[in-house]
Amino acid sequence: MMKSFPQIAKGSFLIIFLFQLSSGYAQDEHYVVTDSSNFSSQSFDDPDDFNNNVFQNSVSFYGSRFLKGSNWSNSIFRKDVNFSYARFDTSIAFWGHQFDSTADFSYGQFFGDANFYYSKFLNKAIFSHAQFDNCAAFFECEFDSTIKFNYAEFYGPLIFLDTILPGADFNNCIFADQIHLGTTSSTIIPVFDFNLATFIDKSTVQIIHGAPDIHEVFELLNLGAPYTSEKKRKEVPGVKIILHGPIVLKCQLEKLKYFSLFSKLDYYRKKYIVDSIKEKSFSEEKYSKERFELDYLFAKSTMYQEKTSIYAPNKWHHVGRWPKWFCMWLYNATMGLGYRPFRLIYWVIGLILLFTFIYTKFLSKRINAFLSKDWKSELAVENDKDSNFIIFWGNLLNALYFSVSIFFTFRLQKDILIFFSRREKFLIAIEWVLGFFIYFSFVAFSKKGSFLNTITALFTS
């Protein structure tokens, strides 16, 4: 079962606290200067040996394998560090690292959680073609340039919180789990590009460990096969992108359905996030549909929320709010809070079929007699020679015609108020009132632009 974001966050911060207590982490920690630079194609039981190291030269962990999970803390890399094709068999945490030059994790495989805490990337950070089987978290990190994630695969949650970065390039990436984006502590609004990303809905995916291209590279370098290729299947919950702060967003209109606002933000914080995205990302006239969808996202997120600057969760014992909650629920179920008014079509069809069944069951003879007089013919009268099957379908079609006429208030030649009894008229009036209420709601409660967006969608791809 996938852990929720609060569970992930609480667990991560608890680990941070315990680690600081046990290791005495501080800014003035003693550092060891390391001149060694080539650790390619090696296996490491525990990277703790590299804690508090200063690597003066370019360092290569190319194709290395880290067998056990650990907390690798407080290292400084003065020049390029290369983790290309490295394999991390279990969870690993990079704490308080400083990368003065390029940090290359391309084609890396992270089978456990990959956590980066308090680390600084002062040059390029490259994660192209990397594979993350579980959570990939970046907490309170700093990036001086856009992170390259091209062709990376994320089969667990991806978290960017309280991290300072210009942006992240997710072109041709694969996502299959939650993505948490945004920060409240930085004045830099990051750019996240999902234009060419692939979003997977809830399904079972096949993950390949040790892809063939990795072995081809190692053979060219005469390094031998790094590890055996393996395949495993994993159930993924599907993509859901949760916003915690403002971002600059690059994505297609169709992908906005995957976005939502973090539920524990107050009303005005959510409004600020949506307004910021509309202004920074979709301010041009051609993006009117995107702005409309963001308004819908905000409406869904705040439909049960009070307009205050303090988050206060709703409780079931707030009995006085029940009528409002029910009305908002009904408004969303029937019209998508005014942004999806054509949902009413499903309700119209359902109500007509419901009353058709009721009329067929209890008023079939009366309706046949009424239609027979109304049409001035005997077509609606049952014939004793007809089979039960023909009689049933004849009654059903007559009831359907009658239900549609009442619901849409088509003119009937016979005065319906004179022909039917009081109880029958009461049942018929219920359907008529429901039909009238739906007409009124469609016109009065539809949001501006909802008609145009729906109609144009019918004629555009």
In words, what does this structure look like?
The chain has 461 residues and is an alpha/beta fold. Helix content is 34%, strand content 20%. The protein contains eleven helices and 32 strands. Strands 2-5-9-13-17-21-24-27 form an eight-stranded parallel sheet, with no helix packed on it. It has an eight-stranded parallel sheet with strand order 6-10-14-18-22-25-30-32. α6 (344-362) packs across α8 (388-407) and α6 packs antiparallel against α10 (422-444). The radius of gyration is 31 Å and the shape is elongated. Residues 13-30 and 220-225 have low confidence and may be disordered.
Provide the descriptors you would attach to this structure in a database record.
alpha/beta; eight-stranded parallel sheet; single chain; 34% helix; 461 residues; 32 strands
Q: What's the short story on this structure?
A:
With 461 residues, this protein is an alpha/beta fold.
